[in-house]
Amino acid sequence: MAKWLTKRTFLIIILTAIIVAALFFILPVSIPLILALLTALIIEPLVKLVENKFKWKRKLSVISVFIFVMLLVALGVYYSITSLIGRIIQFTKDAPDYLNSLSGAWIDMQEKIFRYTSGLPSDIVKATQEQFTTALKSFQTSLLELLSYERIVALASEIPNFLVSFIVFLIALFLFMLELPQLKQGVFNRLTDRTAEKVRYMTTRLNATIIGFAKAQLLVSFIILGASFVGLLLIVPKYAVVMALVIWIIDVIPILGSIIILAPWSLYELASGDVAMGTKLAILAAVLLIIRRTVEPKVMGAQIGLSPLPTLIGMFIGLKLFGVLGFFIGPMVVILFTTAIEAGIIRLNFKI
Known about the structure:
- This protein is mainly alpha-helical and 352 residues long.
- The protein has a domain at 29-88 and 128-192.
- The protein has helices spanning 7-26, 31-54, 58-116, 122-146, 149-189, 193-235, 240-250, 259-271, 275-304, 308-322, 326-343.
- The longest helix is centred in the N-terminal third of the chain and has 59 residues, at 58-116.
């Protein structure tokens, strides 16, 4: 038998294979449980604080913190939904005016096209009109598909699954919060003293990483808030405060972020004939996107202890593999890997 093929090495290979299989087969259906465990780990310092501050038992501290967190979430969801409903009602009231503006802009655009192409050969004019009509029909088809009955029914059919997953998440979160010390102790009981010390080092490092990740996201969001407020103050001072806050909240969505707000706004202004306003909003959207994509990896790397390159790679690969959650999972996996190397659990001191 080869020297490297020891019982320990064989066990590590088996465990690695099980973890890889779990990532591909079990992970996609275990997202609520994984999120519940991660949330319990994040809330654990608050539970410890309440437990030590008021000298309460674990169960009472968990119940009080759980209720407090659920109240905060409920208030946030309530105000978000009521604000959204209010915006929808206001939009339905203003929809006729928007449609009239777009109709007028469409007529003006047609007149401008006819005016600009009046001196050109008939074939070029005809080809231009056909291309413009094709583009308009394509946009109309895409919009109808987005708002189609099948799409709405498919979205509505996911609501029961979401509710079931959310209920499972809440129950699992409460149980994880109750049994987290026993779970930790059970894991450490299966480890040798040397391995337990390494795992404790990794746990401490990951806790610092989570806090650093939150600080990085908060710092980048404030930079986006300041940049959007200054930009909107120069473009549309009347709506600068409100729209900057809206962009700040929406910008947490990976990849898209502020473009969700600024791109449709810019297109509407361009279609309405205000080319200057539409161009300025498009430039602001590009500036905010550049700020987030350049500043975020650097700030996050500084806060969680990684250089910008592996941070960017982790976010990109995580996003491609796991969707939006991968945007957060990617850097955590990179940190876990580097911490395991620092702790000596994974050794890469080989040469080829």
